[in-house]
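Translate sequence into structure tokens.
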Amino acid sequence: MAFLYIALTGFAIAIALQSSWKRSHDPLHPTFLFAFPSIAVYIAQPTWLVLSDYTRFHSYLDPNQFQQVALLNLIGLISLFAGSNGPNSAEPVSAGRQFARDHRGLRLISVFLGVTSIIGYLYCIHSVGGFSEAYGRGKGGGWSDIGYVRETPWLSIPATTLMAISNRKLGWKEYLWIATFSFPLLFHGLVGGRRGFIAAGFLTIAISRWLATGRRPRVFRLSIFAIALGILLLAVVANRKQTSLVHGVSLDRGLKSYAVVSSSGTEYIYGGAVMLASQAQNIHFYGKRYLTVVFIRPVPSQIWPQKYQFASEFLSIPNLAAKGSNLGTGELDFASTVGFHASVGAAPGLVADLYLEFWYFYVFALFAVGRSYWFAWHRAMLGNHFWGTAYIVMAALSIYLILQTLEAMLFRFLFATGFVFITWFAMEQRLPNLDFTITSDNRTKA
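Result follows.
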């Protein structure tokens, strides 16, 4: 029965893809963004795990538990894809005309954000003793006690995006800026073994240029791109403990990692365990974790050192900053429900994360996530430069959304787009002679 639910999941995704293609003929539609990682985690991963080692997989999730998890994932993904297939309320602007004019204002914002990103990244590297110290071991990187400084590499996404959409035809200077701004994401991802950074870097470059030029990849080519990126991410995860500046980029382990071997850290198994334990112990947070993420987390710890402790006591939730908390999932008693202990640092995936948060109301939360992506895409297609930037940030972070948690995507999105909005507004006020308009001259009726 579990594989019937998995097959139905694949069928539901196929229907969603067909529907979005019929309405938009745009492979940059959010349904396509969700489809590839969803197929990887909710269809390919459990199928591979069971077929490669049936006994090992069922030592974590027995057949009845597997069936229950597959059903909950099916219902959740139907809601997500239903949300991403919004109504056709307007005919999109021709993508090639959205950003056809030379936009000096966008380039200026891009340079400011990009330079800020580079400076913040280099400061974190300098704080630990330079590149040799930062990346002299597997899964290395820089550090700063100031959270906003640690997050500055994510400004590379809007910086790259704004440079890419500043004109339909870019010169060598613009491409040099794009390469420079992408450095923190791609270098940290490849040498530091961070799959999210790699995916964000490549998706930002590809989608922003596809959006700006009006050229769309054929679905077959997009599929090849997604598969190649997926293989790269698997290789990086499998070999990140052996990859460093000292040893170089290692591929000795091939693609063998927790993602393709049954373990307590595998996304499908861990996510399933989260849902089962949450259901058995009747533990749900009903939005309180996300109130903490949106309203408490942005306050610097230097100003409010006990902010997470306050949120824990005031909202009656786990301390989200505690070691092993895993955004609250680590507080569940896995052993009494599924017979194994939680893997520290593991991610449950979007469906399990929202099931833990909202119980059966997770279907509405997933629908809202899908509709939010559709809204941003739709506004971008109408020629809105700000929403074009916001959508590309959302697209670049979509791997965090599907494979990890909404929190992993949401805070980075709010940080990057908030910084863009503030910078945009400040420059528009101080430099009135430059064009900072956020919408194209080729808008259609909404």
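Note: The chain has 21 helices and no strands.
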